[in-house]
Design a protein that fits this description.
The chain has 3 domains: 128 residues, Sandwich (Immunoglobulin-like), CATH 2.60.40.10; 94 residues, Sandwich (Immunoglobulin-like), CATH 2.60.40; 180 residues, no CATH class. It has a 5-stranded mixed beta sheet with strand order 1-7-6-3-4, with no helix packed on it. Strands 9-15-14-11-12 form a 5-stranded mixed beta sheet, with no helix packed on it. The chain is rod-shaped. It has 443 residues and is mainly beta.
Length: 443
Amino acid sequence: MNARALCSAAVVAALCVGLTPTAASAADNPTPPVTPVSTPTPAPVDPTTTGPTTPAPTTPTPTVTADMLPITLDQPAATWEDRPITFTGRLETGLVNSYLTLWEQLSTGWVLRGSTRTITGGAYKFTYVSPTPGAATFRVVIGVKFPSAVGNTPDRVVNVLDRTLVMNKPAASYIVLTGVKMTGKLTPPEPGQKLVGLQDRFGGKWRTLTSAWIAANGTFAVPVPDNLPATKTVRVVTLGGASTAVEASGYAVITIKALLNAKVSYISAASINKTYRPGCPVKPSQLRYITLNYWGFDGLVHRGELVVRDAAVAKMITVWTVSFNAKFPIRRMQRVDIFGGSDIRAMAADNTSVFNCRQVTGNPYALSPHSYGFAIDINTVENPYLAANNVWYPSNGLAYRNRSVVRPGMLFSTSAPTRALINQGFFWGAGWRKPDYQHFQPK
């Protein structure tokens, strides 16, 4: 059966033009054929009657308009601005391979958004991603030009929803190394895994600092680099998608403050099993575990730990508050248990520590003051120690025996830890005949 046989007598000329690619380009806007209505001729008068006879009625040919043509457009479902809108419908004549175009109405006029051809049964399908949320009006046209005299669908209004990425309002300030995170929610949640990134404003541009996965319910908690006190302007953005699908939150100003933030707790014998043994002058119950912040040689804040005598806690917190505020650099601050209880290994690692129940290094006949939880060694490489056996420890600190060349981490009488410890009643080992530049103990 040919195309003309599918069309009714009333619409054949209007519909069939443009249903094939050749017709679409040759005649997109023909003038719809209209059959003029004839003016009726007066009926002749029968001379045998007293009046004229009633004329026979005539039926005018109707004008064919575009909205009468048989093409449908289903109502598209509402969608999000970074998701495709699906448009479906059919040519009711069932013609295959007919050329159709999709148009969107903007404030400046109608804009072409896509093209396709009909398939089996005259069905068709368009997909289009709208980058702008709001109510959008669309129309499908037979042929390539708009408006079309061949035929078009009724207009359909699609609600394009706004996908939002919201970052919760941050606190007024945070303390360094407290696990600061920016939280919020992506609405609606993305199917599957999706990343969100934390950005800060640097040099007039946004740079990505860290990232985190968005949970299935759309919530996120992305970490903030909080090892350097600063005030930053930050926002969060979605990562890993097309640039047109990126969502960005509003920005906020966050402040990371530099504080010692010392925390004191009890310590178990199991935690000091390399530095404590039965017979030591203090028991684990007489010791305390302090975690605190310190400035590293890298210019960042790090979290350290000290095991000290309970009676020394307040003094140690005072000393390290002064040192922290002065930004005196510390290489490492860990329990000597991390080094298997070995003072030599701890010194070679440039460790700062207090408690270690042991003999004096270089003198196996004397009990070290560190066994009581009061004495402290600071930056052991930059501040080496001349032992009773006339050996300098650690071996990698020999270059620092020359105290006339000032380098970071070295202790002098004017250094913040030195002054603070002396003010707390400690004696500095640098004054001994065999100098111990790293060592302080109560007088």
